[in-house]
Amino acid sequence: MSKKRYTLLKKDGKARRGRFETPHGTIETPVFMNVGTLAVIKGAVSTMDLKEIGCQVELSNTYHLHLRPSDKVVYKLGGLHKFMNWDRPILTDSGGFQVFSLSNIRKIKEEGVYFNSHIDGRKVFMGPEESMQIQSNLASTIAMAFDECIPNPSTREYVEKSVARTTRWLERCKAELDRLNSLDETINKEQMLFGINQGGCYEDIRIEHAKIIAKMDLDGYAIGGLAVGETHEEMYRIIDAVVPHLPEDKPIYLMGVGTPENILEAVDRGVDFFDCVLPARNGRHGHVFTKNGKINLMNAKFELDTRPIDEGCQCPTCRSYTRAYIRHLFKAKEMLAMRLCVLHNLYFYNKLMEDIRTAIENGNFSEFKEQRLREWKSGDCK
């Protein structure tokens, strides 16, 4: 039986304010995990920067690190925490989504997935055991179970078969991680496992799968296979259907989501964990978040704008630099432009989560959510 690690501190409607204890520190939830696919945030952001902008959890990618530099290299160097100089929690995804995205060069079988490396074309095999072994070598705080991310739309027959296989794979992941955590040579013998709910946009399949995996007493539960082409309304409908059937005493993670609006809506439906490449990716292209919505710093109207990106923001960028200067850096193709915008966007997301936690504690999350949505929608974005 898994240890009790998650404490539900307060509920405001369905919104949950929690605390999750891990071998690498406490996570205050709801939380946004800052995505560092290859053990680094794209945009020249260091782990020291991550601490300054309030990052609680860093997320790295099993598939990419397995190919480069290889999980065995990371193991020899003492695991991800030592490798990237980060002493707070790390979640590693299982590689399932990346394998899903390689649809032209992969073959799914019961034992696992055969595919070709996107780097050099070499043949690679990954199944539940291999995913757990790689994540154990990486020594992350939280390992994600290996699953199949189902394309949308998919036929009911395909989804049912896929979900049944994902359940069998989850059982194999749990057995293998238990074995790995018992070995003397394992770096993190307290590595935790999150299972993933799948089922496409079929509510009844989702609910049945949630009930099955809820009985497996995992450390946490994720809702996967969303944000892959369905509408926001469909995504919210599935979250509404699934969350009541997952354990209330375990954290719930909505994978790969999303926009600030998506996060507010999902928190309102009981979700605790989020991750998305959006803030960093947008920042690298000069698209930045403000209290009045998103702006594009490439626009000519910012050429002489001496204001910070977001007035009142306390991020390192807004405390020191103007919109005009950052726009100049982009036009001059200077790397500092990307760095400053990524720092700002990640700070914006981490601060949003902090404000969400405070609103739930104060019992006014609903009002907070409506106010933020109104500001982002009606903001002048000047």
Automatic annotation (TrEMBL):
Residues 14-377 form the tRNA-guanine(15) transglycosylase-like domain. InterPro entries: ArchSynthase1/Queuine_TRR, TGT, TGT-like_sf, tRNA_ribo_trans-like. Binds 1 zinc ion per subunit. Residues 256-262, 280-284 are annotated as: RNA binding. The active site is at 93 (proton acceptor), 275 (nucleophile). It catalyses: 7-aminomethyl-7-carbaguanine + guanosine(34) in tRNA = 7-aminomethyl-7-carbaguanosine(34) in tRNA + guanine. This is Queuine tRNA-ribosyltransferase. It comes from Clostridium isatidis. The lineage of its organism: Bacteria, Bacillati, Bacillota, Clostridia, Eubacteriales. The gene is tgt.
